[in-house]
């Protein structure tokens, strides 16, 4: 028995209630609202033979990148496969994609989800899963083009079209097409103002262009739409904190950290990543964060042996290094090195990016800034291979700049900061750091000019003088 979903995609069930639950769970998944797994679990409790329910559950679990959820993923894959005989072609392909993820072949999994869309372009769950997969694999071009491929089969009358626009907006942003990305994010939000991914795409545009006041307005004015009951809100709050950080508003950043990014202990790995990434940015500025690091380390320390996904490992390493947990940091490094010798997508990620990045962070923590520089300089150019966004990976550049300054390599820091001021000419932080670099390079007049630029920019936005960390006076 076969029904079709609201996008005319075949589902091998005759149970209209199960299908309605799947539609509801899909809508929650597309909007990151809580909690698609609970909805699909309720449907499966009533109808354990609901094939697409198991496939959907497996996909959602895979895209958490959380090793702790692998046993649940395994259960869903097994339950789906046991129903293969009654599954349709699309569902069998979902099973194969989820199974590839389960076996650590993330690249093949994402390719399989993507291939489903060639034949079923309105399979919006496959689209979302492939889109998230492209993000985890750092496949910027596919973030844009995989969505573009399905556009001829969608229009404003297709349910969920706004979400597709939001995905395309993010892909356009990650490939540097900022004007079209912002335009598309606005189109998505005109259709559905409660689309946190479209809001997020716009936030990335403003982050990359250094449009700090615009970014604060963009997120701040829409907060009621994206922040309530939303599993992605922590990340949009994180983006708001990034603008504040660029403006030197450290107190506001800490307030956002304590109230919105990490308001309480969470062992959700995606949330732990943003918490670590924000604290590390503050740590680079010499800001005292001991209690916050200690609290976060309680969540990361048990994962020091996982080596499941190198991008996560890098954030675990920041936390262990900054919280002074040397033994666990050593263990993590050994495990990441060992995982690089294994098989599967993560082995490649670890080998090419995870190991040098973790070693660099480890060295930075020991005060061995020259080693950190040697490791970060080459890996920065290929760091997209372990996934994440440009804004997230910017942390590697910030670490490299700080290492160069602390190692007294002013000319290197100056060169790296020239990249930054070219991309973000209105960033007070970039100019304040440039002043530090010029001081270190011995060019006092240019340093004074850069400092005046930083102060002028901060002043023009009604902000206090940018704080650039405790070492600024010494450099
Ligand atoms: Fe982001």
Give a written overview of the molecule.
With 475 residues, the chain is mainly α. The protein folds into four domains: 1-136, Alpha Horseshoe (Serine Threonine Protein Phosphatase 5, Tetratricopeptide repeat); 139-230; 262-407; 408-473, no CATH class. 70% of the residues lie in helices and 1% in strands. It has 25 helices and two strands. It has helices at 16-31, 36-46, 51-62, 70-81, 89-102, 106-119, 124-137, 140-150, 161-174, 178-191, 196-208, 212-220, 223-227, 233-246, 250-261, 269-284, 290-300, 310-322, 326-340, 345-366, 369-379, 390-406, 410-423, 428-440, 444-460, and strands at residues 3-4, 10-11. A two-stranded antiparallel ribbon has the order 1-2. Helix 7 runs antiparallel to helix 8 (140-150), helix 16 (269-284) runs parallel beside helix 22 and helix 24 packs antiparallel against helix 25. The chain is globular. The structure holds fe (ii) ion. Fe (ii) ion binds next to helix 11 and helix 14. Fe (ii) ion is lined by residues 200, 204, 235, 239, 389, 391.
